[in-house]
Amino acid sequence: MAKKQDKPVGGTVTVTQTGSPIRREKSQRATLIGLGLNKMHRTRELQDSPEVRGMIRKVRHMVSVAE
């Protein structure tokens, strides 16, 4: 059975980088770049999709999210 999502999917989500990628795994750095974030305090507005949510979940300790 598929897991129910807490938030509705389809709108946009605002992601801001709050942590440094220094001394992090290479895949976490690549995920930040994939989200369009590579410097501190940069903000991007992204489509709210399962793929983007997964990327945010991977680097949740380095970003803040606003719906």
Automatic annotation (TrEMBL):
Transmembrane spans: none
Xref: InterPro entries: Ribo_uL30_ferredoxin-like_sf, Ribosomal_uL30_bac-type, Ribosomal_uL30_ferredoxin-like
GO molecular function terms listed in the Swiss-Prot or TrEMBL record: structural constituent of ribosome
Keywords: Ribonucleoprotein, Ribosomal protein
Composition skew (Low complexity), residue ranges: 9-19
Domain Large ribosomal subunit protein uL30-like ferredoxin-like fold as annotated: residue spans: 14-63
CC annotations in GO: cytosolic large ribosomal subunit
PANTHER family associated with the record: LARGE RIBOSOMAL SUBUNIT PROTEIN UL30M, MITOCHONDRIAL RIBOSOMAL PROTEIN L30
Protein name per UniProt: Large ribosomal subunit protein uL30
Organism: Sphingomonas oligophenolica
